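As a warm-up, study this chain.
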Amino acid sequence: MPENSTSSDGFSTLPISIPPLPSYPVHATHYIYLRRNAPRIATADDSRSLYLSNIPTDSTEAHFRALFTNLVGAGRFESITFEQDKRSAKISHEPAQAERLAKHHKKRKREDEELQYRKEEAAAELPETWSRELHRSGSSAVALLADEKSVDSILKAVKKLTKPKKYPVWGEGLKDGVPVFGAQWLMAHNKLSYPGNDVVQAVVDTYFTVFNRKEEEAHQLAKRLRNEPDEDGFVMVTRGGRSAPARRDEAEEARQKMLDKQQKKKDEMQNFYRFQLREKRKAEQLELVKKFDEDKRKVQAMRERRGRFRPEM
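Now compare it with the structure written out below.
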């Protein structure tokens, strides 16, 4: 796509300058494609969001904060959600029964309980093994800005980038706190991959504590739902609703009731068909009587006309 052009899909081209590195001492230009965010399922923040495609593999929130500050000044950028963050958010470690029942029962917990549960769930996650994540080539992201005016300002600033010397430099203006790549990054990964038995054991213990608590909550909820009607007046069918299988006489009684119901329905249908046949025969008889009367009147009229006829001698 040509520089500073807009595609048929509404994407604008944002060229950024990649400075040379010791491992790759070549100056390069990378192109990010951006447009107003328009997902299939609309949200309240779409008007102040930008959809970014083909982001650099080493992208972080700090990189885009510095990039947008370079374009339109500070205070316009709020946050960014990367494609891999959306995928990881869909993974659930809920017990199967708890996850299934949660769809039918939504009860708000107190704020202190909710905060405590979140802390426990965070502690039940294994520690990260990378100090900084890399994105796949061609990945996408959604940037959240302060307001809709900020989106317009960024799109206008992108269109004004006509000379390579004015391209924003990737990584320029970064504050401290972004881990570097190279040997230090690999050494940090090697160290984070072996957190120690005490750390792993603590995570496992916390995970099963959370898991067992959710299982118990799901069990108590299932017991309550067995006899608790929902908004439509229906009682949800859950596992464990019967303590033992039905006896043979109960099964035979239920079978006989089903057969009696089917036979009753069959008899009703047969009676209904008999009623239709009777009505049809009555209609045919009435039609025959009507035609017979009409024929009688025609014969009588013909006799009367014949009686008035006098042939000439």
